[in-house]
Amino acid sequence: MRDWQGKRYWLVGASEGLGRELAFCLSRAGVELVLSARNAERLRSLSEALPGRAEVLPLDVRDTGAVSAAAERAGEIDGLAYLAGVYWPMRAQGWDEAKVEEMADINYLGATRVVGAALPGMRRRGRGHIVLTGAISGFRGLPGTIGYGASKAAVMHLAESLQHDLQGSGVEVQLVNPGYVRTRMTDKNDHPMPFIMEPARAAREYFEHMSSDRFKLNYPYGVSLLYRGTQFLPDWAYFRLFNR
């Protein structure tokens, strides 16, 4: 079990949904938070509702200079969790380049900018904790996930590469791959969402994983096992099954 008391974490994507609920989990455990997202008003409301200390640091992760400046302002942190993300359901027949680019820019490149800004300090100090958020939809390409699935697969690949490179450095890396969580993003879906989780429950499991020494969490168990299992299907079977 990780000792949370007195730690300082940068939580990116904290204004609503899973990120907001994770802020409560961390704050109740005694963590001092730096809260980032684009919506400053929501961040201020969250900081006032938290039981512990929290600093509001509005940020657009698409802006490399702003990310670097925010990392400077955040100062010496013990860890960061990246949960910023956008999503639109999209098929190839309805390709929207602006939305595809925004999903890539926020979901994946935003993560690289934040990690790239925070990692040098962690490496100098010989300690740190980086938690990235993928998705079980990143295991294989799915119908209707143009842009989003690829961006999450890239985050998952990034986390695994970091885990390889940083072992023994004192900087810990973890990856969390949630299934469906009831948020403004999933409200856009018009298809069944098996085992959909409420944000508070999803955040508790996310926090429990952060408290552990395991690298990866795929959840909820049932649907994550199904999606993970698709990696072992031959292509002809996979595309036939999931195109239905």
Description:
With 244 residues, this protein is an alpha/beta fold. Helices cover 45% and strands 14% of the residues. It has 8 helices and 7 strands. A 7-stranded parallel sheet has the order 3-2-1-4-5-6-7, sandwiched between helices. α5 links the parallel β5 and β6. α4 (97-125) packs parallel to α5 (148-166). It is globular and about 50 Å long.
Question: What's this entry about, in short?
Answer:
The protein is α/β, with parallel strands linked by helices and 244 residues long.
- Provide mean pLDDT, rounded: 92
- The structure class reads alpha/beta
Q: What's the SSE pattern?
A: EHEHEHEHEHEHEHH
* Order of strands in the sheet with most strands: 3-2-1-4-5-6-7
Tell me roughly what share of residues is in helical segments: 40-55%
Query: For the CA atoms, what is the radius of gyration?
Result: 18 Å
Shape: globular
Strand content: 5-15%
| Total count of helical runs of at least 4 residues | 8
From the N-terminal CA to the C-terminal CA, the straight-line distance is 43 Å
Largest sheet, strands/sense/barrel: 7 strands, parallel
| Low-pLDDT windows of residues | none
Q: Tell how many strands the DSSP assignment holds.
A: 7
